[in-house]
Design a protein that fits this description.
By secondary structure, the protein is of the alpha+beta class. Helices cover 29% and strands 21% of the residues.
Length: 534
């Protein structure tokens, strides 16, 4: 952290010759504030933004996305077969932070562990392109040797794909579950693996020095990192401060060098803010489980049509936020063109909503449920994460549904871990979900197949699931994109989810912090090559 100099000291310094500072060295320490703690540092279980942010600094995959380019990571080079289905990665001489060499076996173990149904990872679809990955994680085969992941020797890893996937390398570079894992650490620490600096080990630019859960994470430069000479920061500190006013107050006092994200209100107070957009989709998940009120499709559509996305974006969200009417991120580009332009789809909901259409759907829902008026509806529980922006979203949506339709929605505000627990266990009716949209247009839609752990809506469509399965194995890109378009039309029509917007993110960072970069994908803040300017 670079200390601000109080005024009395400034006055004294005016009288000191500039040459006196020529040999001074600025501490290479970067301190920033985030809004919530990491959920896990277990690569196989990781699926949240803040965990991905820290892991990007603590670990290294075969390749990296750095400053929007794919660069070598622990793979010094790689070969691709003529048909584009076999990737052979040649590892460089690299070490874990304890000095033990990184081997191809560490990657094989990690990938297969994540795909193993016993691990219970929600991120298995990241590996869908790999031969027999889906059959393995679905339990259709139990022999891991049939999966297209092979450590040929200590320095050679071969990945065999089901078909030539044009998104594979970018997915792996930007993905958050392609890091190696040390098997001996998992076996030694069991359930405690990756829960503290003592039980976690990485091979990236930084080492986990301290993790005070809910308060602070400290990273120190890793002298064993293969590219340590290019890493200038000696220490990175993330302070976990849920209250935005506190975060901003510390920034204004010079106690921290940056804030990971700020609200729209703070962008007015701090016009020097930076922003980024794309790479994430936020949507409402309606819990469609049998017996719950949101099982009714017309009620789901009524709530979606009643949302004035445009007004909420203007009032609450950060710069760069765009209202959307579909599940595919328009920032995904194929052949130089947005995939949403080439393959159209829509919920039919205008950005400002359509309250008359919403009332039509509500009346249908009431009739189907045998009710006469909105107040007869069972209680609807909107579970909200305890963050300022999420609370603002919830209150704006609640007011819109009440004013436009007369529908009462209760809001349950929970600490982030408990809220995510409610989402995973299905203890909600409505939940605002934010997910990385990836580089493949099917990235988010893959989640809504029957039995998928990320199918938070508990939606059950065999036709949709079959289309998603078919596209995942289709080597013909044009045909595959049409299948994705057909699947998207189904999910938009049945509305187990209500797409809202692709959020922009505003952040603060001092000018003396150089080389910091925010990538497109969630969690891809890159301070690996950052430094504090003298």
């Amino acid at each position: 952290m670079k200390k601000w100099i109080v005024s009395i000291i400034l006055i004294a310094l005016i009288t000191i010759p500039v040459s006196c500072f020529a040999a001074s060295v600025t501490p290479q320490v970067f301190t920033f504030a985030g809004h919530n703690d990491v959920m896990t540092l277990d690569v196989s279980q990781m699926n949240d933004e803040m965990s991905a942010l820290i892991m990007y600094a603590l670990n290294e995959s075969l390749i990296r996305n750095s400053y929007n380019e794919i660069i070598p990571g622990l793979a010094e080079s790689y070969d691709v077969s003529e048909d584009g289905t076999v990737y052979t990665f040649h590892l460089r001489d690299a070490k874990w932070s304890d000095g033990v060499p990184v081997t191809a076996k560490d990657f094989e173990y990690s990938f297969l562990r994540t795909m193993n149904p016993e691990t219970g990872s929600s991120q298995v679809s990241e590996f869908d392109s790999i031969l027999n990955a889906q059959a393995y994680y679905n339990g259709e085969i139990t022999d891991a040797s049939l999966v297209g992941v092979k450590a040929v020797d200590e320095k050679t890893l071969v990945l065999t794909l089901t078909y030539n996937d044009p998104f594979f390398m970018t997915e792996m570079a930007e993905g958050i579950n392609f890091y190696p894992i040390r098997e001996d650490y998992v076996e030694k620490y069991g359930m405690s693996y990756a829960s503290s600096p003592e039980t976690f080990i990485g091979c990236g630019p930084f080492v986990l020095n301290e993790w005070v859960q809910g308060a602070r994470i400290t990273l120190e430069k890793n002298p064993e990192y293969w590219n340590a000479d290019k890493v200038k920061l000696e220490r990175v500190v993330e302070l976990i401060i849920p209250d935005e006013n506190t975060r901003v107050g510390m920034y204004d006092l010079g106690e921290i060098d940056g804030i990971y994200s700020i609200s729209k209100v703070q962008t007015i107070m701090h016009p020097e803010y930076g922003s980024r957009s794309g790479g994430t989709l936020q949507y409402l998940a309606f819990n469609c489980s049998e017996g719950l009120v949101m099982e009714n499709m017309n009620l789901r559509k009524a709530l979606s049509f009643a949302i004035d996305r445009e007004a909420i974006v203007a009032a609450i969200t950060s710069p760069g936020t765009i209202p959307v009417d579909r599940m595919i991120d328009p920032s995904i580009i194929i052949d130089g063109k947005s995939v949403t332009e080439a393959y159209s789809n829509s919920t039919g909901v205008p950005p400002s909503g359509d309250i008359e259409k919403a009332k039509e759907f509500l009346n249908k829902a009431l009739s189907e449920l045998g009710l006469s008026k909105p107040s007869d509806l069972p209680s609807i529980n909107y579970v909200c994460m305890d963050s300022p922006v999420h609370k603002q979203y919830a209150e704006a949506l609640q007011a819109g549904w009440k004013d436009g339709l007369g529908v009462d929605v209760g809001i349950s505000i929970l600490p982030v871990p408990q809220a995510i627990g409610a989402l995973l266990s299905g203890q909600f009716d409505i939940f605002l979900v934010g997910q990385a949209s990836g580089v493949d247009p099917a990235t988010i839609m893959n989640n809504f197949t029957i039995g998928n752990g990320n199918n938070y809506a508990r939606w059950d469509s065999k036709e949709y699931s079959n289309l998603i399965a078919a596209q995942s194995e289709n080597p013909n890109l044009a045909e595959r994109l049409l299948q994705i378009q057909q699947a998207e039309a189904i999910i938009l029509d049945e509305a187990p989810v209500a797409p809202l917007w692709t959020p922009g993110t505003a952040y603060l960072c001092r000018e003396f912090v150089k080389g910091l970069h925010y990538g497109r994908q969630t969690g891809s803040i890159e301070f690996i090559f950052a430094y504090i300017e003298n």
